Structures are given as C-alpha cells and as structure tokens.
Amino acid sequence: MHDRGAQAHAQAPTLAFAAMDDGTASGWAGVIAGSVYLAAQMMFVTVIREDSPWIPLQRISALLLGPDALLPPGKISLSIAGFAVLIHFALAFCYGRLIGRVVRHVRPAIGWVVGAVCGVAIYALNFKLIGELIFPWFAESQGAVTLFDHALFGVVAALSFITLRRGAPVATDGSSSG
Fold first, then answer.
1. For residue 13, with 0-12 CB atoms within 10 Å meaning exposed, 13-18 middle and 19 or more buried, which class applies?
2. How many CB atoms lie within 10 A of CB 155?
3. Terminal C-alpha separation, the chain
4. In Å, how far are 3, 100, 118, 139 from 112, measured between CA atoms?
5. Nearest one of 95, 81, 96 to 26, comparing CA atoms
6. Residue 106 has what DSSP assignment?
7. Spatial contact of 111 and 163, defined as CB atoms under 8 Å apart
8. Each residue of 57-111: pLDDT tens digit?
9. Is the CB of residue 85 less than 8 Å from the CB of residue 31?
10. How far apart are CA 178 and CA 78, in angstroms?
11. What's the predicted TM-score (pTM) here?
C-alpha cells in the first residue's frame, strides 16, 4: 500500500538552481534585497508615517536630478520613478556585492547578523554622513523606519547571498527515491 501523502510530496515541484560564484550571487543578492527594501520603505512610509508611497522614489531620484525631483506629496512622474529605480538598484547591486564580500568570511548561521550590521552601517553612511553633507532632503527620511529597512536590506542580502552561493539540489531526471 502506498502512502498518498508521501507520493504527493515526492512529486511536488521544487525550486532548484546551481550554486553561483561569489560575484554573481552577491549581485543578485543586492537586487533581491533592494526589491524587499523598496517595497518595505514604500509600505512603511504609507502605513507608519501616513505619507505618500512615492516619497522614497522622489528622494532617491533627487540624488541625480536635484531637489526639483521633490514633487508635492502624492505626485510622481515616469521619469522621476525611472531614475529612482535605476539609482536604487545600482546602489543595491553595489551594496549587495559589498555585503557578499563580508558575509562570505563568516559562518552561514551568523550571516544574517553580519548582514544586519552591514545594513545599519549603510544607513549611517547614507543618512548620517553623505545625506547630511550633500542631500539635506534626506534628513526627513532619517529615523527608525529607514534604519529598520536598511537592517532588513542587509539581512535579506546576506541570506540571499548565502543561499545563491550554496545553490539548491538540482534533480537530474525529475524522479525521487522513496
């Protein structure tokens, strides 16, 4: 007699991918973490600060476009959103590469902690040093929400890097032993 539950589980599709080299894994980790960060930032700005979800995109695009990109709350243009996405993911890619270089030297079990510390360091660099000196409109983004989102970025980047670098088992013929 066959156990139908075991059969169904054995036939369930699994996400499988080969291990990636450090550079590829860390770049993708940054993109994944950047996606999570941007979604969290837009959500938390809306829910906690009761502000427009477009404000993070406006402030990011103002890095290159200048303060003219800071439209009235609730307004966004395709060019401002496009610049923000390009800038954000370029930075996320670079920060992911940096976090990958740090995390590869620690045990995977504590990689998430190291990632969180890296995220907090990125927050300090972006908002306490560079932002205060060059981009005064970033002062309004400082605080617990943005600090948390940066720590989240670091955790997601570290865990993504560890996972992508290690890979997942790749089935060769689709069958399972049972």
1. exposed
2. 22
3. 13
4. 38, 11, 10, 28
5. 96
6. S
7. no
8. 988 998 888 888 787 877 888 989 999 999 999 999 999 999 999 999 999 899 9
9. no
10. 53
11. 0.81
